[in-house]
Write a structure and sequence with these properties.
cytoplasm, P-loop_NTPase, 3-stranded antiparallel sheet, transferase, binds cytidine-5'-monophosphate
């Protein structure tokens, strides 16, 4: 069985998907980290983010790998573990720009389908239920109010010592949502056969339980 979890930025997808995967002893694949790794490389090498050909070529000529280490998923750009570099606001914004390029998405689709080939995966992203794994047995669309998503991210960043303002974060999440929902290729939308789970005001564990119940019903 494969489980697809999609939804907007900050809905709690990675945390929830990771927990669901570990409960079911499935493999967790965070597709956002792959777009983020590419975005990091563009940023790191100071390449022109608005040039699709350059960005697409960069992906073609390098390797992104997901590696499990001590129960956590790490993302590698060639031999560099970039996991701790990919969550900054700059990389987040860049990620939604590289993700709007058709030639980048085509390559990512191949990589992601390959990763899911063995089955029993929980994959999270924006287009998993609609494009990457349209035949997934369980599809979840996870969402929450913008305010709550921004607050969650703000608390995370605050704990890491960042000084970011909540209002700025809310604006950035709104911008990222807009780009993700309005791009030409594989925009973020709920698949017709996905179950909507609104996580506003619900704890992570409650969300995980709901999804496990849905898996039991549908699997
Ligand atoms: O999920 P996360 O916020 O880490 O994803 C970073 C960015 O990557 C998103 O804003 C989105 O633009 C892009 N993305 C995507 N399709 C996916 C996963 C992520 O377009 N399947």
């Amino acid at each position: 069985m494969n489980i697809a979890i999609d939804g907007p930025a900050g809905a709690g997808k990675s945390t929830v998907a990771g927990k669901v995967a570990s409960q079911l002893e499935y493999v967790y694949i965070d597709t956002g980290s792959m777009y983020r790794a590419l975005a990091w490389a563009v940023y790191h090498h100071q390449l022109p983010i608005d040039d699709e050909a350059t960005v697409s070529e960069l992906l073609q000529n390098n390797e992104i790998r997901l590696v499990r280490k001590a129960g956590q998923q790490h993302v590698y750009w060639n031999d560099t573990d970039v996991t701790s570099f990919i969550r900054s606001n700059e990389v987040s914004q860049y990620a939604s720009i590289v993700a709007s390029y058709g030639s980048v998405r085509e390559q990512m689709l191949v990589l992601q389908r390959n990763l899911a080939k063995q089955g029993n995966v929980v994959m999270d992203g924006r287009d998993i239920g609609t494009h990457v794994l349209p035949d997934a047995e369980v599809k979840i669309f996870l969402t929450a109010s913008i305010r709550e998503r921004a607050e969650r991210r703000w608390k995370e960043l605050l704990a890491k010592g960042s000084q970011v303002q909540l209002a700025d974060l809310e604006k950035e999440i709104e911008e990222r949502d807009y780009r993700d929902m309005n791009r030409d290729v594989a925009p973020l939308r709920q698949a017709d056969d996905a179950v909507l789970v609104d996580t506003t005001g619900i704890s992570i564990d409650q969300v995980v339980d709901r999804i496990l119940q849905i898996c039991e019903r549908m699997g």
